[in-house]
Amino acid sequence: MNRFEYVQAPSLKDAINMMNSTVPEALLQKAASSAHVVKAGGTDLLDLIKEGLVEPGRVIDLSKIPGLDKLSYDNKTGLQFGPLVTIAGLEESAEVKKNYRALYESAAHAATPQLRNMATMGGNLMQRPRCWYFRSSAHKCRKKGGYTCYAQIGQNQFHGIFDTNICPCVHPSSLATALLAFDGKVELTGPEGKRVVPLSEFFTPSEDKVTQENVAGSKEIITNIMLPPVDANTRSAYFKMGQRESYDWSIADVAVVLKMDGKKCTDARIVFGAASSVPLRREAAEAILKGKVVTEKLALEAAMKSVEGATPLKHNAYKVKLFENLTKRVIMQAVA
Ligand SMILES: Cc1cc2nc3c(=O)[nH]c(=O)nc-3n(C[C@H](O)[C@H](O)[C@H](O)COP(=O)(O)OP(=O)(O)OC[C@H]3O[C@@H](n4cnc5c(N)ncnc54)[C@H](O)[C@@H]3O)c2cc1C
């Protein structure tokens, strides 16, 4: 671990100014990957620093900035929450549980209760992948600017089954699966001001830029996460399969959001987590549900469609059947 300067930002404005100001020369000498880095709960950042993946000159702590931990719901504008809202905060929100069931389920099944108390949603969307080669200092893989993907030739049982050509490591956020299914957006704030990015454009596939997982700039901070309002006809469900029930990331997770007119589905969104370098919408499967009465037979048809085009690696073909089964199950849970 390198030496770094630690500063607690009293306000968002101060945090942005700190990111824009110069880091002392003595500290920069070892800051290989980034001059500044922001910290929220620290549950991933501290690992990244210990693993030598981030060697910051300055750590800017956001955790005491007032107002960034607020959550609100309104029938007209939907759900809004600041980046310091914790996973436990989402899980405990009655509005989330009532209106955004899939998001509630994703929060309730992430990590452990202790981690959920510390882990913020800004940090959750910005956490780095858990591929063991990426996290190992002995492997300079493509994600770290190297030329080899060790996962493609080595142990890949937890890796992706879609778009695996460049880097098959999967996006680690299981909350993002549900947030994308609800068509969420994030607000980013940086020295140039604010911008709102739909989650469908926020995550970057490894084919586009292997060393980065999203479009946030190095001086931008997530300052808000927004979901559109839901109505009485919205049904949703989510299921996460991990190797262990607790203390683990997902091997496969699926979120389904349906708009219903009685028993007929008028609109559908199906998203896979831990299947690819980004949370992945399965549009061809969604199309099968739209305009039809959802039966078990139709759910199976959509589930089979959802895994079409998968290109599993040597050790993870089991995931194809797993995603197919989970998709059918989650569709049926949503309409139940
Ligand atoms: C054993 C274990 C199991 C886990 N299981 C799951 C799981 O099942 N599902 C899941 O989704 N996650 C899981 N996680 C990951 C956990 O949810 C994340 O580590 C956590 O959400 C990160 O939030 P944090 O506040 O601690 O972020 P930090 O560690 O403080 O930051 C993480 C990254 O985000 C950046 N960052 C933080 N806040 C912001 C912001 N507002 N704007 C821009 N950048 C920011 C930091 O610079 C850093 O790069 C697990 C973690 C562990 C250790």
Structural account:
The chain is of the alpha+beta class and 336 residues long. Among the domains are: 1-66, Uridine Diphospho-n-acetylenolpyruvylglucosamine Reductase, domain 2 (2-Layer Sandwich); 71-127 and 173-227, 2-Layer Sandwich (Uridine Diphospho-n-acetylenolpyruvylglucosamine Reductase, domain 3). It has 15 helices and twelve strands. α6 runs antiparallel to α11, α13 (283-289) packs antiparallel against α14 and α14 runs antiparallel to α15 (318-335). Flavin-adenine dinucleotide is lined by residues 37-45, 62, 83, 110-111, 115, 118-120, 122-124, 126-127, 172-175, 221-222, 247-250.
Please outline the helices and strands:
Elements (H helix, E strand, L loop, with lengths): L4 E4 L3 H9 L4 H4 L5 E6 L5 H6 L5 E6 L9 E4 L3 E4 L5 H6 L1 H6 L1 H8 L4 H6 L2 H6 L5 H4 L14 H4 L21 H7 L3 E6 L2 E6 H4 L18 E7 L6 E9 L7 E12 L2 E10 L6 E2 L1 H7 L6 H11 L11 H18 L1
Parallel strand pairs: 1-3, 2-3
Antiparallel strand pairs: 4-5, 5-8, 6-7, 6-8, 9-10, 10-11, 11-12
Helix pairs in contact: 6-11, 13-14, 14-15
The structure holds flavin-adenine dinucleotide.
